[in-house]
Protein backbone atom coordinates (compact mmCIF):
# COMPACT_ATOMS: atom_id res chain seq x y z
CA UNK A 1 0.00 0.00 0.00
CA UNK A 2 2.72 2.50 1.01
CA UNK A 3 5.53 3.01 -1.49
CA UNK A 4 8.93 2.67 0.18
CA UNK A 5 11.71 5.23 -0.09
CA UNK A 6 15.10 4.23 1.32
CA UNK A 7 16.51 7.46 2.67
CA UNK A 8 20.18 6.54 2.89
CA UNK A 9 21.72 7.65 -0.41
CA UNK A 10 23.14 10.89 -1.83
CA UNK A 11 20.04 11.44 -3.92
CA UNK A 12 17.56 10.64 -1.14
CA UNK A 13 16.66 14.27 -0.46
CA UNK A 14 16.09 14.94 -4.15
CA UNK A 15 13.91 11.82 -4.46
CA UNK A 16 11.81 12.86 -1.46
CA UNK A 17 11.28 16.39 -2.81
CA UNK A 18 10.33 14.96 -6.20
CA UNK A 19 7.70 12.75 -4.55
CA UNK A 20 6.29 15.65 -2.52
CA UNK A 21 6.13 17.91 -5.59
CA UNK A 22 4.10 15.32 -7.47
CA UNK A 23 1.11 16.03 -5.24
CA UNK A 24 1.47 19.80 -5.68
CA UNK A 25 1.41 19.44 -9.46
CA UNK A 26 -1.71 17.25 -9.20
CA UNK A 27 -3.57 20.13 -7.56
CA UNK A 28 -4.65 21.68 -10.86
CA UNK A 29 -4.45 25.43 -11.29
CA UNK A 30 -7.86 27.02 -11.69
CA UNK A 31 -6.65 30.62 -11.86
CA UNK A 32 -8.14 31.72 -15.21
CA UNK A 33 -11.64 30.36 -14.58
CA UNK A 34 -11.62 31.74 -11.02
CA UNK A 35 -10.60 35.21 -12.24
CA UNK A 36 -13.62 35.24 -14.58
CA UNK A 37 -15.91 34.23 -11.72
CA UNK A 38 -14.54 36.99 -9.50
CA UNK A 39 -14.96 39.65 -12.20
CA UNK A 40 -18.53 38.52 -12.87
CA UNK A 41 -19.44 38.72 -9.17
CA UNK A 42 -17.85 42.18 -8.87
CA UNK A 43 -19.93 43.33 -11.85
CA UNK A 44 -23.25 41.53 -11.29
CA UNK A 45 -23.32 40.86 -7.54
CA UNK A 46 -25.99 38.54 -6.13
CA UNK A 47 -27.27 37.60 -9.59
CA UNK A 48 -23.88 36.17 -10.53
CA UNK A 49 -23.53 34.39 -7.16
CA UNK A 50 -26.91 32.68 -7.56
CA UNK A 51 -26.28 31.70 -11.18
CA UNK A 52 -22.94 30.10 -10.29
CA UNK A 53 -24.38 28.33 -7.26
CA UNK A 54 -27.19 26.78 -9.30
CA UNK A 55 -24.78 25.88 -12.10
CA UNK A 56 -22.15 24.21 -9.93
CA UNK A 57 -24.55 22.51 -7.51
CA UNK A 58 -26.42 21.01 -10.51
CA UNK A 59 -29.65 21.30 -8.58
CA UNK A 60 -32.93 22.81 -9.72
CA UNK A 61 -33.39 25.42 -7.03
CA UNK A 62 -36.05 28.11 -7.26
CA UNK A 63 -35.13 30.20 -4.23
CA UNK A 64 -33.16 33.41 -4.66
CA UNK A 65 -32.60 33.94 -0.95
CA UNK A 66 -28.88 33.70 -0.25
CA UNK A 67 -28.98 33.59 3.57
CA UNK A 68 -30.97 31.93 6.34
CA UNK A 69 -33.43 33.89 8.44
CA UNK A 70 -33.08 33.79 12.23
CA UNK A 71 -36.35 31.87 12.39
CA UNK A 72 -34.96 29.19 10.04
CA UNK A 73 -31.72 28.96 12.01
CA UNK A 74 -33.50 28.54 15.34
CA UNK A 75 -35.65 25.76 13.88
CA UNK A 76 -32.68 23.94 12.31
CA UNK A 77 -30.46 24.29 15.37
CA UNK A 78 -33.03 22.52 17.56
CA UNK A 79 -32.62 19.40 15.39
CA UNK A 80 -29.01 18.91 16.51
CA UNK A 81 -28.45 15.56 18.20
CA UNK A 82 -28.06 15.91 21.98
CA UNK A 83 -24.70 14.08 22.05
CA UNK A 84 -23.36 16.29 19.26
CA UNK A 85 -24.49 19.39 21.17
CA UNK A 86 -22.60 18.18 24.24
CA UNK A 87 -19.49 17.46 22.14
CA UNK A 88 -19.67 20.92 20.51
CA UNK A 89 -20.11 22.58 23.90
CA UNK A 90 -17.08 20.78 25.31
CA UNK A 91 -14.98 21.53 22.23
CA UNK A 92 -16.03 25.20 22.30
CA UNK A 93 -14.95 25.58 25.92
CA UNK A 94 -11.60 23.84 25.42
CA UNK A 95 -10.75 25.70 22.21
CA UNK A 96 -11.75 29.06 23.70
CA UNK A 97 -9.73 28.43 26.86
CA UNK A 98 -6.60 27.62 24.84
CA UNK A 99 -6.99 30.60 22.52
CA UNK A 100 -7.69 32.96 25.42
CA UNK A 101 -4.11 32.32 26.56
CA UNK A 102 -2.87 33.80 23.26
CA UNK A 103 -4.19 37.33 23.80
CA UNK A 104 -1.36 39.77 23.30
CA UNK A 105 -1.21 42.87 25.49
CA UNK A 106 -0.37 46.30 24.13
CA UNK A 107 2.80 47.86 25.52
CA UNK A 108 4.39 51.29 25.90
CA UNK A 109 7.85 52.48 26.90
CA UNK A 110 9.91 55.68 27.01
CA UNK A 111 13.45 55.93 25.74
CA UNK A 112 16.17 58.10 27.30
CA UNK A 113 14.84 61.19 25.49
CA UNK A 114 11.34 60.63 26.96
CA UNK A 115 9.97 59.66 23.53
CA UNK A 116 6.86 57.47 23.89
CA UNK A 117 6.87 54.36 21.71
CA UNK A 118 4.08 51.80 21.87
CA UNK A 119 2.15 49.01 20.24
CA UNK A 120 -1.65 49.00 20.24
CA UNK A 121 -3.83 46.12 19.08
CA UNK A 122 -7.34 46.28 17.66
CA UNK A 123 -9.57 43.53 16.24
CA UNK A 124 -10.77 43.25 12.68
CA UNK A 125 -14.30 44.54 12.18
CA UNK A 126 -15.80 41.92 9.84
CA UNK A 127 -14.67 38.35 9.16
CA UNK A 128 -16.02 35.79 6.69
CA UNK A 129 -15.75 32.09 7.57
CA UNK A 130 -16.02 29.53 4.78
CA UNK A 131 -17.26 26.06 5.74
CA UNK A 132 -17.32 23.28 3.09
CA UNK A 133 -20.75 21.81 2.37
CA UNK A 134 -22.13 19.09 0.15
CA UNK A 135 -21.64 15.70 1.77
CA UNK A 136 -19.35 17.25 4.41
CA UNK A 137 -20.51 18.27 7.87
CA UNK A 138 -17.86 20.22 9.72
CA UNK A 139 -19.01 21.92 12.94
CA UNK A 140 -15.36 21.67 14.02
CA UNK A 141 -14.45 24.04 11.17
CA UNK A 142 -16.96 26.56 12.51
CA UNK A 143 -15.43 26.41 16.00
CA UNK A 144 -11.79 26.50 14.93
CA UNK A 145 -12.27 29.52 12.67
CA UNK A 146 -14.72 31.52 14.76
CA UNK A 147 -13.32 31.12 18.27
CA UNK A 148 -9.95 32.84 17.73
CA UNK A 149 -11.86 35.71 16.10
CA UNK A 150 -14.18 35.90 19.12
CA UNK A 151 -11.23 35.97 21.53
CA UNK A 152 -9.58 38.70 19.43
CA UNK A 153 -12.72 40.79 19.81
CA UNK A 154 -14.20 40.57 16.30
CA UNK A 155 -17.83 41.69 16.55
CA UNK A 156 -19.12 40.69 13.11
CA UNK A 157 -18.61 37.11 11.92
CA UNK A 158 -20.34 35.93 8.74
CA UNK A 159 -20.39 32.30 7.65
CA UNK A 160 -20.91 30.74 4.22
CA UNK A 161 -21.61 27.10 3.43
CA UNK A 162 -23.24 25.57 0.30
CA UNK A 163 -26.90 25.02 1.25
CA UNK A 164 -29.07 26.93 -1.24
CA UNK A 165 -31.58 24.09 -1.13
CA UNK A 166 -31.81 24.83 2.64
CA UNK A 167 -30.22 21.46 3.45
CA UNK A 168 -27.66 22.30 6.09
CA UNK A 169 -26.43 20.07 8.88
CA UNK A 170 -28.00 21.24 12.17
CA UNK A 171 -24.67 20.86 13.96
CA UNK A 172 -23.13 23.58 11.77
CA UNK A 173 -25.98 25.92 12.65
CA UNK A 174 -25.73 25.04 16.36
CA UNK A 175 -21.97 25.73 16.37
CA UNK A 176 -22.45 28.97 14.43
CA UNK A 177 -25.12 30.21 16.83
CA UNK A 178 -22.88 29.34 19.78
CA UNK A 179 -20.15 31.46 18.18
CA UNK A 180 -22.52 34.39 17.66
CA UNK A 181 -22.32 34.32 13.86
CA UNK A 182 -24.28 37.27 12.43
CA UNK A 183 -25.47 35.58 9.25
CA UNK A 184 -25.16 32.23 7.44
CA UNK A 185 -25.00 32.45 3.65
CA UNK A 186 -26.27 29.51 1.61
CA UNK A 187 -23.66 29.54 -1.16
CA UNK A 188 -20.14 28.25 -1.61
CA UNK A 189 -17.34 28.13 -4.17
CA UNK A 190 -15.15 30.84 -5.68
CA UNK A 191 -18.20 33.05 -6.28
CA UNK A 192 -18.91 33.21 -2.55
CA UNK A 193 -15.31 34.13 -1.78
CA UNK A 194 -15.66 36.98 -4.29
CA UNK A 195 -18.97 38.08 -2.75
CA UNK A 196 -17.43 38.22 0.73
CA UNK A 197 -14.35 40.04 -0.57
CA UNK A 198 -16.15 42.76 -2.50
CA UNK A 199 -19.66 42.78 -1.08
CA UNK A 200 -23.03 42.65 -2.85
CA UNK A 201 -26.53 43.79 -1.95
CA UNK A 202 -26.90 40.75 0.35
CA UNK A 203 -23.29 39.81 1.13
CA UNK A 204 -21.38 41.84 3.68
CA UNK A 205 -17.95 42.98 2.53
CA UNK A 206 -15.52 41.55 5.07
CA UNK A 207 -11.97 42.40 6.10
CA UNK A 208 -10.67 38.83 6.14
CA UNK A 209 -11.76 35.42 4.84
CA UNK A 210 -10.79 32.23 6.66
CA UNK A 211 -11.66 28.56 6.36
CA UNK A 212 -10.88 25.57 4.11
CA UNK A 213 -12.32 24.70 0.72
CA UNK A 214 -11.70 22.93 -2.57
CA UNK A 215 -9.24 24.03 -5.25
CA UNK A 216 -11.63 26.69 -6.56
CA UNK A 217 -12.08 28.18 -3.09
CA UNK A 218 -8.34 28.12 -2.34
CA UNK A 219 -7.54 29.75 -5.70
CA UNK A 220 -10.22 32.41 -5.18
CA UNK A 221 -8.77 33.25 -1.76
CA UNK A 222 -5.37 33.65 -3.35
CA UNK A 223 -6.80 35.93 -6.05
CA UNK A 224 -8.70 38.27 -3.70
CA UNK A 225 -5.80 38.53 -1.25
CA UNK A 226 -4.69 42.14 -1.09
CA UNK A 227 -8.22 43.45 -1.45
CA UNK A 228 -9.10 41.39 1.61
CA UNK A 229 -7.06 39.40 4.11
CA UNK A 230 -6.98 35.59 4.12
CA UNK A 231 -5.74 33.02 6.60
CA UNK A 232 -3.71 30.92 4.14
CA UNK A 233 -3.92 29.12 0.81
CA UNK A 234 -4.41 25.63 2.19
CA UNK A 235 -4.01 22.44 0.21
CA UNK A 236 -5.22 18.90 1.02
CA UNK A 237 -4.52 17.59 4.52
CA UNK A 238 -1.41 15.61 5.46
CA UNK A 239 0.30 13.73 8.26
CA UNK A 240 3.79 12.42 8.88
CA UNK A 241 4.01 9.67 11.49
CA UNK A 242 7.44 8.98 12.98
CA UNK A 243 7.57 5.54 14.57
CA UNK A 244 10.14 2.97 15.68
CA UNK A 245 9.98 -0.62 16.90
CA UNK A 246 8.41 0.57 20.16
CA UNK A 247 5.27 1.69 18.25
CA UNK A 248 2.16 -0.45 17.85
CA UNK A 249 1.66 -1.07 14.09
CA UNK A 250 -2.14 -0.97 14.38
CA UNK A 251 -1.99 2.55 15.84
CA UNK A 252 0.33 3.71 13.07
CA UNK A 253 -1.97 2.25 10.40
CA UNK A 254 -5.04 3.83 11.99
CA UNK A 255 -3.39 7.27 12.10
CA UNK A 256 -2.33 7.07 8.45
CA UNK A 257 -5.86 6.10 7.42
CA UNK A 258 -7.43 8.86 9.52
CA UNK A 259 -5.63 11.40 7.35
CA UNK A 260 -6.13 9.57 4.07
CA UNK A 261 -9.93 9.48 4.38
CA UNK A 262 -10.09 13.28 4.10
CA UNK A 263 -9.39 13.46 0.38
CA UNK A 264 -7.87 11.49 -2.48
CA UNK A 265 -5.15 14.19 -2.50
CA UNK A 266 -4.43 13.81 1.22
CA UNK A 267 -0.96 12.56 2.11
CA UNK A 268 0.07 10.05 4.79
CA UNK A 269 3.78 9.41 5.37
CA UNK A 270 5.45 6.97 7.74
CA UNK A 271 9.05 7.69 8.77
CA UNK A 272 10.86 4.83 10.51
CA UNK A 273 14.13 2.97 10.95
CA UNK A 274 12.31 -0.37 11.13
CA UNK A 275 11.54 -2.19 7.85
CA UNK A 276 9.40 -4.74 9.69
CA UNK A 277 7.15 -1.92 10.91
CA UNK A 278 6.47 -0.76 7.34
CA UNK A 279 5.61 -4.32 6.32
CA UNK A 280 3.26 -4.76 9.29
CA UNK A 281 1.61 -1.39 8.70
CA UNK A 282 1.02 -2.18 5.03
CA UNK A 283 -0.80 -5.37 5.98
CA UNK A 284 -2.86 -3.61 8.64
CA UNK A 285 -3.79 -0.78 6.26
CA UNK A 286 -5.59 -3.24 4.00
CA UNK A 287 -7.29 -4.88 6.96
CA UNK A 288 -8.46 -1.62 8.57
CA UNK A 289 -9.56 -0.09 5.26
CA UNK A 290 -12.09 -2.87 4.74
CA UNK A 291 -14.08 -1.60 7.73
CA UNK A 292 -14.04 2.03 6.59
CA UNK A 293 -17.05 3.80 4.97
CA UNK A 294 -14.62 6.03 3.04
CA UNK A 295 -12.49 3.07 1.97
CA UNK A 296 -12.34 4.19 -1.67
CA UNK A 297 -11.09 7.71 -0.89
CA UNK A 298 -8.55 6.54 1.70
CA UNK A 299 -7.27 3.76 -0.57
CA UNK A 300 -6.72 6.12 -3.48
CA UNK A 301 -4.92 8.59 -1.25
CA UNK A 302 -2.61 5.96 0.23
CA UNK A 303 -1.92 4.34 -3.11
CA UNK A 304 -1.00 7.56 -4.89
CA UNK A 305 0.51 9.72 -2.16
CA UNK A 306 1.23 7.37 0.75
CA UNK A 307 4.90 6.79 1.52
CA UNK A 308 7.00 4.75 3.90
CA UNK A 309 10.44 6.32 4.44
CA UNK A 310 13.06 3.89 5.73
CA UNK A 311 16.00 5.70 7.26
CA UNK A 312 18.27 5.77 10.29
CA UNK A 313 17.39 7.76 13.41
CA UNK A 314 20.06 10.37 12.72
CA UNK A 315 18.25 11.57 9.60
CA UNK A 316 14.67 11.66 10.93
CA UNK A 317 14.80 15.37 11.85
CA UNK A 318 16.21 16.26 8.43
CA UNK A 319 13.32 14.42 6.77
CA UNK A 320 10.67 16.07 8.98
CA UNK A 321 12.00 19.56 8.29
CA UNK A 322 12.11 18.84 4.56
CA UNK A 323 8.49 17.65 4.48
CA UNK A 324 7.31 20.41 6.89
CA UNK A 325 4.12 18.44 7.60
CA UNK A 326 0.80 19.92 8.60
CA UNK A 327 0.49 17.24 11.29
CA UNK A 328 3.43 15.41 12.86
CA UNK A 329 2.87 12.38 15.08
CA UNK A 330 5.67 10.96 17.21
CA UNK A 331 5.47 7.32 18.29
CA UNK A 332 9.07 6.64 19.28
CA UNK A 333 11.24 6.20 22.35
CA UNK A 334 13.17 9.40 21.45
CA UNK A 335 10.26 11.84 21.11
CA UNK A 336 11.86 14.61 23.17
CA UNK A 337 15.06 14.49 21.13
CA UNK A 338 13.08 14.77 17.90
CA UNK A 339 11.00 17.70 19.18
CA UNK A 340 14.15 19.69 19.94
CA UNK A 341 15.22 19.44 16.31
CA UNK A 342 11.89 20.06 14.59
CA UNK A 343 11.61 23.53 13.03
CA UNK A 344 8.97 22.89 10.39
CA UNK A 345 5.61 21.42 11.45
CA UNK A 346 2.07 22.66 12.00
CA UNK A 347 0.97 20.68 15.07
CA UNK A 348 2.99 17.99 16.85
CA UNK A 349 1.23 15.05 18.53
CA UNK A 350 3.36 13.26 21.09
CA UNK A 351 2.93 9.67 22.24
CA UNK A 352 0.45 6.87 21.65
CA UNK A 353 -2.46 8.60 23.39
CA UNK A 354 -2.28 11.68 21.15
CA UNK A 355 -3.84 10.83 17.78
CA UNK A 356 -4.15 13.69 15.31
CA UNK A 357 -7.93 13.24 15.41
CA UNK A 358 -8.11 14.63 18.95
CA UNK A 359 -6.45 17.80 17.67
CA UNK A 360 -9.04 18.07 14.91
CA UNK A 361 -11.86 18.35 17.41
CA UNK A 362 -11.29 18.91 21.05
CA UNK A 363 -7.70 19.24 22.31
CA UNK A 364 -7.74 23.05 22.16
CA UNK A 365 -5.04 24.25 19.71
CA UNK A 366 -6.29 25.23 16.27
CA UNK A 367 -6.64 22.65 13.51
CA UNK A 368 -6.34 25.23 10.71
CA UNK A 369 -2.70 24.57 9.83
CA UNK A 370 -0.18 25.21 7.03
CA UNK A 371 -0.02 22.50 4.34
CA UNK A 372 2.11 21.55 1.33
CA UNK A 373 5.37 22.52 3.01
CA UNK A 374 4.21 26.00 4.06
CA UNK A 375 4.97 25.14 7.70
CA UNK A 376 8.50 26.26 6.74
CA UNK A 377 7.32 29.87 6.95
CA UNK A 378 3.87 29.97 8.55
CA UNK A 379 1.84 28.79 11.53
CA UNK A 380 -1.64 27.62 12.41
CA UNK A 381 -4.60 29.99 12.80
CA UNK A 382 -4.50 31.98 16.04
CA UNK A 383 -5.95 35.02 17.77
CA UNK A 384 -3.16 37.06 16.14
CA UNK A 385 -4.74 36.48 12.73
CA UNK A 386 -7.72 38.60 13.75
CA UNK A 387 -5.77 41.46 15.31
CA UNK A 388 -4.09 44.50 13.78
CA UNK A 389 -0.99 46.04 15.35
CA UNK A 390 -0.62 49.81 15.38
CA UNK A 391 2.63 51.49 16.33
CA UNK A 392 2.31 54.79 18.21
CA UNK A 393 5.18 57.27 18.15
CA UNK A 394 5.31 60.45 20.22
CA UNK A 395 8.63 62.32 19.99
CA UNK A 396 9.65 65.03 22.47
CA UNK A 397 11.48 68.29 21.68
CA UNK A 398 14.65 66.79 23.15
CA UNK A 399 14.07 63.62 21.16
CA UNK A 400 13.85 65.30 17.77
CA UNK A 401 16.85 67.51 18.56
CA UNK A 402 19.01 64.49 19.46
CA UNK A 403 17.81 62.23 16.66
CA UNK A 404 17.41 64.75 13.84
CA UNK A 405 20.99 64.64 12.52
CA UNK A 406 20.82 60.91 11.85
CA UNK A 407 17.38 61.19 10.24
CA UNK A 408 18.52 64.06 7.98
CA UNK A 409 21.71 62.22 6.96
CA UNK A 410 19.83 59.04 6.09
CA UNK A 411 17.14 60.95 4.17
CA UNK A 412 19.74 62.80 2.12
CA UNK A 413 21.60 59.53 1.50
CA UNK A 414 18.39 58.12 0.03
CA UNK A 415 17.84 61.32 -2.00
CA UNK A 416 14.67 62.20 -0.10
CA UNK A 417 15.18 65.88 0.64
CA UNK A 418 11.50 66.32 1.53
CA UNK A 419 11.96 63.85 4.37
CA UNK A 420 15.01 65.75 5.60
CA UNK A 421 13.22 69.08 5.39
CA UNK A 422 10.24 67.84 7.43
CA UNK A 423 12.70 67.32 10.31
CA UNK A 424 14.81 70.48 9.69
CA UNK A 425 11.78 72.74 9.79
CA UNK A 426 10.87 71.45 13.24
CA UNK A 427 14.38 72.00 14.57
CA UNK A 428 14.31 75.61 13.35
CA UNK A 429 10.91 76.24 14.94
CA UNK A 430 12.03 74.59 18.14
CA UNK A 431 14.94 77.02 18.42
How far is the first residue's CA from the last residue's CA?
Answer: 81 Å
Classify the helix fraction into a percent range: 40-55%
> Can you count the beta strands?
14
Radius of gyration: 25 Å
Low-confidence stretches: none
Major sheet size, sense and barrel closure: 6 strands, parallel
Count of DSSP H/I helices: 17
Shape: globular
Average pLDDT = 94
Major β-sheet strand ordering: 1-11-10-9-12-13
Strand content: 15-25%
Structural class: alpha/beta
Task: Describe this structure as you would to a colleague.
- This protein has 431 residues and is an alpha/beta fold.
- The chain has helices spanning 12-26, 31-44, 46-57, 70-77, 82-100, 139-152, 170-178, 189-198, 215-224, 249-260, 275-289, 295-305, 316-323, 335-341, 356-361, 397-413, 417-430; strands spanning 3-6, 107-110, 116-123, 126-130, 156-160, 183-185, 208-210, 229-230, 238-243, 267-272, 307-310, 327-331, 347-350, 387-394.
- The chain has 17 helices and 14 strands.
- It has a 6-stranded parallel beta sheet, with helices on both faces. A 5-stranded parallel beta sheet has the order 6-5-4-7-8, with helices on both faces.
- The relative contact order is 0.15.
Amino acid sequence: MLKILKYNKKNSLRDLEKFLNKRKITQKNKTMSVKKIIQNVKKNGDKAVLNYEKKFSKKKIKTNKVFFSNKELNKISKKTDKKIKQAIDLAYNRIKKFHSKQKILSFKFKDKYKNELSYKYSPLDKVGVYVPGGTANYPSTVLMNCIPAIVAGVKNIYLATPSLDSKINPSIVYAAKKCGVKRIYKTGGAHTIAALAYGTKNFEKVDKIVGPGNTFVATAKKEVFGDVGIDMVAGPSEVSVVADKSAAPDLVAADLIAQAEHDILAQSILITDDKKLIDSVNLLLKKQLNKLPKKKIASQSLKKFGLGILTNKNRIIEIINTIAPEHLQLLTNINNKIIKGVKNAGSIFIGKYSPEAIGDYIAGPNHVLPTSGSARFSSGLSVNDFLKRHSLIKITKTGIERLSASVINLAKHENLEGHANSVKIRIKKGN
